[in-house]
Structures
1.
Amino acid sequence: MEWIGFANYAVFMAIFICIYALLSLGLNIQWGFTGLFNAGIAGFFAVGAYTSAVLTSPAADGRLGGFDLPFWVGWIGAMVAAALIAWPIGKICLRFRSDYLAIATIGVAEIIRLVIKSEDWLTNSARGITDIPRPLGDLSYTMSQLAYLGIVMAILLVAYLMVERQIASPWGRMMRAIRDNEDAARAMGKDVPYRRLEAFIFGSALMGLGGALFAHFNRSITPEAIDPMVATFLVWIMLILGGSGNNRGAILGVAVVWIIWSLSEIVTDQFPHEYAVKAKYLRIFLIGLMLQLVLRFRPEGLLPEASGERKPVGKPSD
Amino acid sequence: MKLFQTAIAAALLGATALAAPAHADVKIGLIGGVTGPIAAMAPPMIASAQLAIDQVNANGGVLDGQKLIGVVGDSACNPQNGTDAATKAVNIEGVVAIVGPHCSGAVLAVANSVTVPAGIAIITPSGTSPEITSLDDKDTVFRTVPSDDYQGRALARTLLDRGTKKVAVAYLNNDYGKGLAEAFKSEFEAKGGEIAGYAAHEGEKASYRSNLAELASGGADTLVILDYGDGSGLTLLRQALENGFFENFVGADGMKSDATFKELGAENLTTFVASSPVGEKSEALEMFNKAFSEAGGDPSAIFVTTSYDAAFLMALAVEKAGGDKTKVAAAMREISSGSGETILPGEWAKAKELIAAGKAIDYKGAAGDHNFDEKGDVPGAYALFKVGANGFEMIGEMK
Amino acid sequence: MKPLLQMTDLHGGYGDANILHGVNLHVAPAEIVVIVGPNGAGKSTAMKAIFGLLKIRGGSVTVGGVDITGWEPNRIVEAGVCYVPQVDNVFREMTVHENLEMGAFLRSGDLSAAYDRVYGLFPDLKERRKALAGNLSGGQRQMVAMGRALMLEPKILLLDEPTAGLSPKYMEQIFQISRDVRDTGVAILLVEQHAKQALAFADRGYVLASGCNRHEGTGADLLADRDVADMFLGG
Amino acid sequence: MGALEIINFYLVPGLVVGSIYALGAVGITLVFAILRYAHLAHGDLATLGAFLGLGLVTALGISPYLALTAVMALTAVVAVGIDRVFYDYLRERPKIVTVMASLGIALMVRAIVQMVWGVDSQTYTRGIVRPENWFGIRVRDRELITIVAMIVLVVALQLFLQRSKWGKAMRAMSDNPDLALLSGVDNGKVVTITWVIVGGLCAAAGLFLGLNFELKAMMGWSMLLPMFAAAILGGVGRVEGAVLGGLIVGVAEEMSTLFLPTEYKAATAFAILLLMLLVRPTGLLRGKVL
């Protein structure tokens, strides 16, 4: 019995869960608490990942940076850069209602992706950036995985506590008021656009941090990592499944989706190898079906927002 | 909070407990982009790797007659799924080595975060990015496909030798297309050729006619397409042919795909040539072609030769290392060092005997001799192919 | 006379809180009944309750003796009840004529008599039958809305504040048309903000306050009632 | 560069792609206007239509044009089925839930296409077709047919919406759903009819995409965002706007190579979209702002 193997895999999965939990928390601030339909998560993820990569990787020819700075500078830089990108986007896009904001943010994320893929001087284009340092990465495989898990868990915990505190504060109550009834909040003299912009920037900064943690974990970042499927829609599935408006739900959703993703591979691996390739498609099919079942039978998510705090977003008839 | 903790704990436990523990078989990972952008290429690549594994098992298996098992993992060509598949293969399946991943981005992520730290050897049949060369990999990362650098340069020299002095280049905007294009451009210009159009394109678009018009406006009559022949490369080639933008078409290994003549018709491709890595002894290629055709595969599909070689090499290395995963990487160098008894594709029984007897062997594969340099790269020998009545036909070696 | 529409001890509201706390009313055939009351009395809510547009927690609504409580709107329409909401009561991107066609959605066969009748009641609309309803003035839109409802030849027409925001001239016109409609045999139940004028023209009236019945009687009686006058008529 | 070159290499291909975008965008705009959510499975439904067409063409040996009506009917049935099985239950839920569900459907439909037809590029007919030359304007039959078929389908749809009883009911539902219900319109039936039309249009878009280019499992997904851009550009709920938007996006993408590096061609649609949202969120033809 190779329990050490299972443990290693569990550690790996936990690291991934923590990184994606940051994305999910960021989205929860935007959607769950403020009602902003950001469908461009990949864009902020990418900005964070590449900013940190440029800041912390050793100098390289032909592209910006390689500043070789300590990793924490990169991570702070990632958050700042994501927030700076979020500001003009938010300024322009937050005027629109959910579906439009979604499509606008998808568009922005795609443009960011194309820039990253095409500009040699900025991001080394399609080849990506390697040699990104991983903190405590010189330890043995298991130890360095554990050490990184410790780091990302600590960051996630801090982020979680900060968000929870913020949500419980008057600021959070105001955000929910804006989400549930924008007109009433406006009538009460709240500066609604400014508050929403705040939430958008705050959430985006967390997404940027998630991107940076991801890049440092893999010690490399390439444009394939910012495919909208794995960096945007997957996060949405996680949040909706876990329960938007509930931070613990947001994190649980991440865990459940990654674990189901993994399990589904183990299940489809039981097919004879002639069907190995088809089985991978079956797996995608099953993920889609699972999403349907959750939406059908548990549409408020596994951990719904505490009752009394929330009315459904949008009227049923609109 | 309690529910939350229990749920996570239960889920993690469930995930690990459900995975069946490894048994006496020897497993190697076959990690590829089954879903995702190169989904069209992955199935034949995995099938040819599986052919190597089947040949091993049909000729006595590995070590003491154990069965070699290829565990297929899906990297979906992105680092997220790639590292997940590799971590699972290494830790849950207990593979001794990995063939793959297919895409360079996944190779970089997997090597950096999983296999290099864990000391597992990997060999990619299709990760062509020059970035892989510079990986700090403790000598565990190999590839059977030459870096784009070599092929791009070889293609440039060959074209100049054939008297083509002025070309336009259309390349796919990813690591493969870009790497080839840059190498091609610098060599072609350095040797006196003229690039009369040079542009990247995104895959998966429906129309490339305006791209082609832009490229053609430079006045070249030869178009170099550095893309995949069953992806946007096919669309590009079709639209160039249909609209008469260029007269001659040149592709690299990605364009040497049966989809070109299956969909466009061989009669329309008389002016189309494509380069591809081949073994020095073309005997090796023929042996592979025969075996793969018999197994129902299509030997001219992209990267099938490199995939087959990668899997066969890995099997040899595992045998040589006695199944010890920490020694596989070192063994990889011994079995294909350029000296020793030559082993050709499928000659597993012979190789097994020689290894048992402690004699040196040297694998010469379908896609090249695979004498790895200090970075784990292969220089590669190339040949130029044209479309004949029965598919691609070699028309000459390339320098 | 047996009532056409009967609402008995109705309780209900939006969400968790009740707005109606036991409302009773009835409408006889070919009768104009008006509901008046101060703001927040639940006038419009009582009307929406007939159409099942809110959560009903007690009581019943019957039409011609048939209990329609909790029915889907399209079945209630089939039962002969038509409702004209206060706002958003026309299809703005459709022509006047198409609005009328939508009103007759459930009917089949030759509708020319129905169109003639509606255009007869609202000559203004006939002139502008090709215009988009969204481009009409408020009063004309109200006419389109009533016309749309009448196309179904309902037994009873529910009007939610039909004169809100209209000039006195249009208000008079709406009242006049309502009487014409009543004279063709259709009962009308309407909610009115302009209590004085409404009670003057209605056959009977109900005064609602805080979701309960407060007064009822003929229009003239209520106008004469000091209590009612004190409550909101002002003088 | 001469005018003919602009027409042959930029305008004509742009109009062909634009016609295909238009067919998709009309469906998207109908779903947006009547059901009120962004339907993310739209592209993959088009892929399914294209491959169903391939199935018919290979099994019966008929021309893809003949297969068109059958494929439209088949895909319409699939679309109605998907709505019944998956979307219908979510009608009372916040719309985001249905948007998510449609994403799941996109994955499922694509997985089925990949399992059944594989992932290789395929074509309806082998070989290449050189264009006819009409006084210097080079255009193929299939391109003309694509444009004409788009126009015919859209005109037929417009006639249906303007003239028929249920077409008017659909417009009424899009205009004022509460009032439509109060007029006795059966919501369920409108939803079904909408899906029949949307499914049929999806299939047509997929089939013409496959006819002019190649069939690939990802073909629909990669068309989704330009189609959305087209629908919003034209004004949500405006059928003629979606057509206009589709043609503009198609032509703009091709023209973009004159000004931009070609790798940014795919960004053209988004740039237009963002610009439109910025200056005129109702779209060119004053659609709804949801």
2.
Amino acid sequence: MQDFVQHLINGISLGSIYALIALGYTMVYGILKMINFAHSDVYMVGAFASYYVARWLGIDSNPSIGTLIILLLTSMFFCSLLGLLIERLAYRPLRNSPKLNILITAIGVSLFLEYGGQVVFGADPKVFPDVMKDFVLFSGAGIELTSFDITVLIVSILAMFALDFLIYKTKLGKAMRAVSSNPSVASLMGVNPDRIISFTFIVGSALAGVGSVLVGMKYPKIDPLMGMMIGLKAFVAAVLGGIGSISGAVLGALIMGLSEEMVVAYLSSTYRDALAFGILIVILIFKPAGILGKYSVEKV
Amino acid sequence: MSDVLLEAKNITMQFGGLKAVDSLAFKIHKGQLAGLIGPNGAGKTTVFNMLTGVYQPTEGEVILEGQSIKGLKPFQISQRGIARTFQNIRLFKKLSVLDNVLIATHQHVKYSLLNSLLLTKSFTESEKNQKEKAMDLLKIFSLESKANELSSSLPYGQQRKLEIVRALATDPKIILLDEPAAGMNHSETHQLMDTIAKIREDFKLTVLLIEHDMKLVMGICENIFVLDHGMKIEEGQPAKIQNSKKVIEAYLGIEEA
Amino acid sequence: MKNLFLSLILTLPLLAGCTKNNNEIAIGEFDSMTGSDATFGLSSNKGVRLAIDEINAAGGVKGKKLALTAMDDQGKNEEAVSAVTRLVTQTKVVAIIGGVASGRSKASAPVAQSHQIPFVSPASTNPDVTKVGDYVFRICFIDPFQGLVMAKFASENMKMKKVAILRDVKNDYSVGLADVFAQEFKKRGGEIVSDLSYQAGDIDFKAQLTQIRSKNPDTLYIPGYYTEVGLIAQQARQLGIKVPLMGGDGWDSEKLSEIGKEAINGNYFSNHYTTESTDPAVSDFIKKFKAKYNETPDALAALGYDAAKILAAAIERAPNLSGPAIRDEIAKTKDFGGVTGKITLNANRDAVKSAVVIQVDGKNRKFITTISP
Amino acid sequence: MFKAFKNPTLALIGLAIFGLGINFGFNDYIQLTVLFIMVNCILAMSLNLVNGYTGQFSLGHAGFMAIGSYFTAYSSTHWNIFPANLQFISAFLFIVGGGLLAAIAGFIVGLPSLRLKGDYLAIVTLGFGEIIRVALLNMDFLGGPRGYANIPSLGSFLSSYLFASLWILICLFTIWRVMQSSYGRGFLSVREDEIAAESMGVDTTKMKVRAFVMSSFFAGIAGSLFAHFTSFINPSSFTYLQSINAVIMVVLGGMGSLSGSIVAAIFITAFPEILRPLQELTHVDLRMVIYSLTLILMMILRPKGIFGELEITDVWRKYVRRSA
């Protein structure tokens, strides 16, 4: 029985990692109706930025709260900068061209970051600096709960509430929702869509930066292709929860994490990814807009 | 069966709590030109969507020539002879005028996919007939000169006419026109009245018309239903409708005592 | 302006033709320099380049310099096929060194075979590679032997009875090793309590490890690459699995202890060679490697080095530079004093050599025992 | 009936002459690249039917290609129904078999997912592609991760080339002829406005499934040819990146333009190979970096794709008339 509890803990902590990245996907999709394929590679760049800054400051082997703060700020700064650059150079010129073109550009940017990363950072995996000591919260009767499992969950829940507050309670959030429903009309009402979209990319990328530090803390192996699989899973989680809905992203991510965990634990480890996709397909067929997504009925 | 072509039996459409259409019942006879009027938001287009299967009525059913069309998909209903135009134009924008009409004739095509590969006689012949039929229809609405132009490049009035031609191309028994005169000036509306009369003549068609232009409705409709808040408040000849107290109240609101 | 810009980026690469002159012997090498297992390709390439530079410094072969053309297959089979086809038909190499990963070697060896160009793989341990044809050789032992080594070590040396296997299902090297280990361990009366898998690129293994923990095995046999093994070791310790872990030559890299930290210490893996060996040739190789690349060579660098040396020796002995001549000379390699031990190529062109069992202790690799075929 | 085969036979003769040129003029490496180009042409044209003409967004094309590849690989190594000299007939049958199996898979995938729209359909098809890949990974009789080796080739370069040109023409003329027919207009109507099409009597679901099945059939054919050309396949060459590659070819060539897909397939297959000498000079593999940059620039400079919606014939007529 305690194994089940351990699987529960593992599943939730895995899900909360997907949540941090899924939030980035959902925000950009919510505003721009666009899948930002490069988002997971911004996450990778955040990890490498923290790696190099930690080595440069020489703090890569003395884990402390100070290190955590510094690395979080570094990663958020570099990711937001990159997010801004990508939006400004690659996506803005395509603002009103067909969706498929934007998608291909996003894939182009993603491949550019991945293979560029291999050239610049080197293809070999690097070791993420020690950020914080992982202390055991609870250990006994076959259940191990460490601080890392919990911190990631807390941060993603906090991020969810913060984003909900930002989007639904603040003036800026109202402007974001306006741009999301109709950019041209929003600009008539004095909202500058370009600035709002850039802001969305900054927040989404900063979230990816936070994700990269937290994931780096727990899984200290980073390499230029690290964003690929986790990005795909996080994106699938965002769609599962209802792309565009903030709480949907977190819910979808937790379901994704738990289902993967339970599939490996009780069914077969070789079919882990296949069954994760299987669950997604089943849900989408019965709920075509995802669990919390609002299914927009086409007005005839 | 009597000459009732289309009958709605207490059809209701509920979106969540809101009853857009509330147990509406009416009959349309073969060859008749009926009108459906009512203030904005009365549920007229919702009725059209229920008649053509885009929405499935939450209660009641629609009978076409004695057979219920409950649960049928829009394309099955179109194949049974109900054609329609749309309130806001839904032409195939990036296709030519001719292609727009040809798509409507697809349901009558007999050759299989394979024939089109081998360019068999049945394929080439059927394509020729389809094109001829489409061009004839376009001639009636004097659109044949624009056959190869993109449908989106036509002026507004002609796009409206193209939608009617496209509906006619499905060889319907009854055609539902959703505000065909919207955005047309006086002379165009007049011309439209003659065209509708002409197609009723040539194709022995029954017509159901949604329209706000009272001159047009009162001018050509033989029977009119009035809808308000999803309910039928009046039915009858144009004269009876014109001075029915209920209709005036629905449109102009209740006079302050 | 737009079309000019477009045509510019299209013609840019055409200018970069490749130069070739004839007082050099062209040797081809291909490996995964990018993609998931890029580090193996890179270290093997360093070993080969070190050997080629040494040989050229000592006057080259048959009085001619060896010109190495290295190509990247991005870890994809169809790229490997294209790379080898290009080396054989475009660069017209006399022999090819290459393919650390068995998958890539198996995909591209037939191309070399059909063009009668000798193909020497430094580190592909999957048995099917040399079955492709008589032009395909390898200078490392094969999975059946390496699996046997650890099965023997686990049951006889460590007297273990219950083993859990955790294999990388996306990697045929790992699947091959795991199957042979299971067979050999059962033959020696051992029991495989669980056989789970993961995919290269995964980062979370707690689900599998929690399942394994409930079977409380004496050891875990994890024949994957060091990139995942470091994380697995850490998560195993986090879940309270205290037993030692075991693996194959895929563990061999400095990064293993950097990622695994203390969790990796005390675990065992089979390998081609050990830096602690007293053999002067090995210490000399390590000194030269450090001088050139300032990092300690791993087994793949050593294997790359040996492969290049064996090939050069064969070309020296061969009467001419034709494919068949070089092939016969390579086949005659006997007791070649390589950095990775005495290398003799047997009838089906695999290397018959002993393997060493190593224990991980921080950065250094403690030599435990040698197990010969 | 004869008229139907006039243009295809002329085109086949043209391609054959081109093939003779390649056979004697260039070495194996160029020949192999040409064969890969032809496989990608079929892949791109078949996907154009779904993404370009019918406006549905499929990201699972590699899965169908994998099914074709593995069926042909397995059948041509295990069953020999014809004596040695008639091998090319059995090879042809196995390729068609690969296509049919992929078409069946296309039907199974198509039915449930075609209710979905846009990104959701993309995700479901991507999911099916991954499921097929993981299933292949776990099938030991197909070699699992070890892959499937020594698949017989289709004889010399020339015979492989002829096989491939035959199938390119079958694919090109099938799709071209269908698009000229009423069914073709049905596909276009689904792309333009599904609700209006349905109200005009077009069974849009059947249209989408038909497009899906036809496109996965040809993806299976492309997969079978790919298996024969590389003679060794394993699941990792059919990942979702391969599907993305196919989508890029369609978008780059021009959605709804067959000749665009062919030109884009040639460009995208040849471009990394052209860049290979660059890598020998710089010892750093910049190919993928330049490839991804080209993608971004192409989408900004030429969003409609090389040919947009036009075929090469229209482009020719437009420029010729203007200059004449």
